[in-house]
Amino acid sequence: MPDASTTVLFRAARDGDADALGALLPRVYDDLRQIAHARLRRQRPGETLNTTAVVHEAYLRLVSGDGAEIKDRSHFFALAARAMRFVLVDYARERSAQKRGGDQEALSLTAAGEIASRADADAHNLLTLDAALARLADRSERLAEVVEMRFFGGMEHAEIAEATGRSVPTVKRDWRRARAWLHAAMTETTDTGASGTSGGDPSPAGLPREE
Amino acid sequence: MDFLTHPRWTEIDALFDQALERPPAERTAWLRVTCGDDPDLYHAVDALLRHDTEAEGAVGESATNYAHALIEAHVTEVASPLARGDRLGPYRVEEEIGRGGMGVVYRAVRDDGTYAREVAIKVVKRGMDTDAVLARFRHERRVLATLDHPAIARILDAGASPDGRPWLAMEFVEGEPINAAAKHQSLSLEARLSLFEQACEAVAHAHRRLVVHRDLKPANLLVTTAPDGRLATEEEGGAPDTSRTGQVKLLDFGIARLLDADDGDALTRAGERVLTPEYAAPEQRDGAPPTAAMDVYALGVMLYELLAGTRPEPDPSPPSAVASEDAAAAMGLAPDALRRRLRGDLDTLVLTALHPDPERRYRSADAVLEDLRRWRESLPLLARPDSARYRLARFVARRRTAVTAAAIGLIVLASGAAWTTWRIAEERDVARAERDRAEATAAFVTDLFNAADPFAAPTSRADTLRARDLLDRGAARARSTLADDAATRASVLTTIGNAQIGLGLYSAADSLLAEAVTAAEVSGDPVVTVEALLARGRALYNGERAADALEPLRQALTLAEAEVPARLPVAQFHLGSALRRTADFDAAVPLLVQASGARGTDSLFRASVLVERGRVEQDRGRSADAEPFYREALALQRQRLGAEHPDVAATLEMVGTSLLEQDRLDDAAPVLSDVLAIRQDVLGDTHPQTASARFNLAALARNRERYDEALVVFREVLAFDRAALGPDHPYVAGAWLELGITHARASRPDSAIAAYRNALDVIRRTQTDAHVIAQEAMGGIGQELTETGRAREAEPLLRRVLAIRRESLGADSWRTGISESGLGANLWRQGRLVEAERHLVAGYEAIRAANGPETGALRRLVEFYDATGRAAQAEPYRARLAEVAG
């Protein structure tokens, strides 16, 4: 479904219109949510919702609305990566806030309890990661940016290199050291029991989610 | 550590980059060398590398890992609620009052003109209307239909929404959770007990109809804020006396179970998850089938809260010991007065209701009610407090990790003194308590000795000796003080025997454990007997007497199967291990498969089973098949133990040896170097396992044709094993064998034959010729004799080895193939060319089919065809040789 207004804003933003850029983020944010929900409904049970595919679908909508090739595709992805981060972090906050208020839970049924408790764990992990990422940005904006693009935007190393004007090996190395730093920060947080922005009970398993 | 602000970040960062360019297995070694004498730098980079490795699994490459459940939960829970004014059947929605995993609860009013009435309506969420959830809804309706009690919220109506989602209308209860009500209304002790009694009556009503609630908690036990006239007129006969305390209402039978069998289908296994761990009995958290005692446990937790003002800790102290000033004040009592009233029978009643062992708990809510009445009437309770010995056992179990090795003697002596003063009571539950105590003590002592185990941590020889003495004294004390308590004696002797196994004192352990088995059989206690038999089997097979271990382990398996199913996987594992050591692989595999597939076992246990499973394949000569088992075990161990743990090194070592056997020398080198590095770090340079790591590197040096280097190390290993394990130990034979092989490769046949003969002499002192070392030694002698013009002398030896291998390994093992190829070479030397060709070809084919090390057999074939003037037949083998020898 073409979305002309997003396209127009994107063009303006590309041409240096800061207001357009400011207006664009919420739109992409809404698009991502809408696409994610729609994909989730279409999926067969057991299928996993892939965030990279969501970002790509958002891009395709934009392109089909534009009717022409977008030259700096990578800039759109960088923007979408940030929007995706906001979407997921908002869901996670919502989730942990809801959990905090929830002793009046009159129903404690089960089939969906599985999803709910995984979501609780994921919310906690994601908020821990987001807090660590904010701390990383204080140390090195560059490393934080790479994490955002790759982790939340699903961008390939080459795409990140294009968006940032750095070489692919540099991007690769930055990703590894940023991720190692994040892991250190996150496990430290868990060890000391300080749960960052998550608010809820620290997950007993700490950060890791196993595959 | 915050790397980015580390003063040496630039250096760290550069080394991190460089390390990442190397294969993971080489990084540590490389870094060690590169950092040279700068341990701080080494540790900083190493830590960063470790974070990198862990981050790969923990953080991954994409947020996808986190997104799915979050978005799904958002879509199903937040989206699509009903709004005020929406209609469900004759009801109009007023507001949302609660939500759970699959449904939302609304307050609604009936407004079809008949009469106005508030109800609570539970509606399945959109997207959650799967068959399983719908089945659960029908189930709850059926359960509620069997219950009719003033303290249980009743079902009023049911139907489906316009979009097909089912709903249940229930009596609307306005009130607050039982614990909050007691607190806010500053209820007296009596009023609290009266509320609790109402709750028990509701639960007892359900229990009498074979319904177990399974999710009792304050949120499901509401207290109406005032004596409720409306309800009283609804219920025939009115409510009991609630003038002082309000009426208790039990809600939410959503995961209740009918104890008769015919509702199994509706509830999936996943549906039995416990959602309120604070109130769930330990066995419920472990997934045990539902029992009324689970509800009793939850009631116990709530009573504890009502009386002590705090939720019980694991292994709770009696309420009288923890009751706070606030709690006392809320009840209008002085703290001392409250404690006095709780001490004794109320303590016992609460602790019995929330006893971790369901067998020691009240069996149903009726039993709790009975003791509440007895307490009120000042009659003796039916429940009994835990005995002193039971409590000591629990204390010991709790403190297990905190006690240091220095305290071993003290504890052993203290428990010994206690044993003599304890009296064995007649009650069955006291007997159980004893068993628990024995088990707890056993685990405790075993843990302590694991700490003293030289294989568990770097310790000095003096520590080992001290541990040894302590064990002997413990055994002597057990014999004298526990002469008339066979079960406890057996249990303590088993414990000591296990500790001796940990110290490598296998024959001492064996005789002690034989005594333990006898005592256990006298006692007739199956749990104690299984443990004793398992320990005896372990002592025997670890002491290289695997054939003798089979009998006790088979007995343990049979008994575990019949009476102690929880220990069945362990019994299968040990019997499988013993069978592997007797080369009965076909019998070992199914046992190990069962053990690794058993539900609810510890991941480290699974890792041990996987390693053993891999070793079966390796012993059969299928090293390539062994590797995946080892890798899977490694992953489990690393997850639990980290990368630098002796157990991880042991499994890595198996990976390394399997690579060696597959001729993958370049892959094996970094793995074996890692093993040595870990052991040098963790165990020190002179530890036997460090020696074994060096041994493997020597084998590798030999395979890379660095013979003198290999000989030096093998001689060290020989001397070490002799001194540490005694001159008859199979490891000594193994070292001789390796020396023989090395000499043979270095073309020193006489030295080789001498070493092989030594190996054979030593191994024959404790084993039959079927032992793998005996086979290798005989084969080696045969080959060297063949090569040095004594082929006729060698032939019977070679045929004997071939027969043994066909028998024990099967014709398709590469080891059998190597043996057959060797016989072919021998026959060739004797000029019996037709026979020789047959064996050379058959031997090679077997090796190749089994992916064994084919180079030697190939070379022989090529030489054979070249020498007999059949270059064309040599050609494919020559090509293959070029291919595998690189």
What would you note in describing this structure?
The complex is a heterodimer of chains A (211) and B (886). By secondary structure, chain A is mostly helical. Chain A is 73% helix and 0% strand. Chain A contains eight helices and no strands. Helix content of chain B is 64%, strand content 6%. Chain B has 39 helices and eleven strands. In chain B, strands 1-2-3-4-6-5 form a six-stranded antiparallel beta sheet, with helices on one face. Chain B has a three-stranded antiparallel beta sheet with strand order 7-9-10. In chain B, strands 8-11 form a two-stranded antiparallel ribbon. In chain B, β2 (91-99) and β3 form a beta hairpin. Chain B is elongated. Residues 227-244, 259-274 and 387-466 of chain B have low confidence and may be disordered. At the A-B interface, α2, α4, α5, α6 and α8 of A face α1, α3, α4, β2 and β3 of B.
**How many helix segments of chain A?**
8
Overall pLDDT metric of chain A: 71
Task: Determine the most extensive contact between two protein chains.
Answer: A-B, 65 and 73 residues
Shape of chain A: globular
Strand order of the largest sheet of chain B: 1-2-3-4-6-5
Class from secondary-structure proportions of chain A: mainly alpha
Number of strands of chain A: 0
DSSP helix fraction of chain B:
55-70%
- Reading the helices and strands of chain A in chain order gives HHHHHHHH
Cα(first) to Cα(last) distance of chain A is 34 Å
Report the sheet-strand fraction of chain A: under 5%
Largest sheet, strands/sense/barrel of chain B: 6 strands, antiparallel
Major sheet size, sense and barrel closure of chain A = none
Task: Give me the secondary-structure topology.
The complex is a heterodimer of chains A (211) and B (886).
Chain A: H1 4-14, H2 18-42, H3 51-66, H4 73-100, H5 111-139, H6 141-152, H7 157-164, H8 168-192
Chain B: H1 9-20, H2 24-35, H3 39-58, H4 64-77, E1 87-88, E2 91-99, E3 103-110, E4 117-124, H5 131-145, E5 155-160, E6 166-171, E7 175-177, H6 178-184, H7 189-208, E8 211-212, E9 221-224, H8 229-234, E10 248-250, E11 257-258, H9 282-285, H10 292-308, H11 319-322, H12 325-330, H13 335-342, H14 345-353, H15 365-376, H16 388-399, H17 408-421, H18 428-452, H19 461-481, H20 486-502, H21 506-523, H22 526-542, H23 546-563, H24 568-581, H25 585-597, H26 603-619, H27 623-641, H28 646-661, H29 665-682, H30 688-703, H31 707-725, H32 730-745, H33 749-766, H34 772-787, H35 791-808, H36 814-829, H37 833-849, H38 855-867, H39 871-885
Antiparallel strand pairs in B: 1-2, 2-3, 3-4, 4-6, 5-6, 7-9, 8-11, 9-10
Helix pairs in contact in B: 1-3, 2-3, 2-29, 7-10, 7-15, 10-14, 14-15, 16-18, 17-19, 18-20, 19-20, 20-21, 20-22, 21-22, 22-23, 22-24, 23-24, 24-25, 24-26, 25-26, 26-27, 27-28, 28-29, 28-30, 29-30, 30-31, 31-32, 32-33, 32-34, 33-34, 34-35, 34-36, 35-36, 36-37, 36-38, 37-38, 38-39
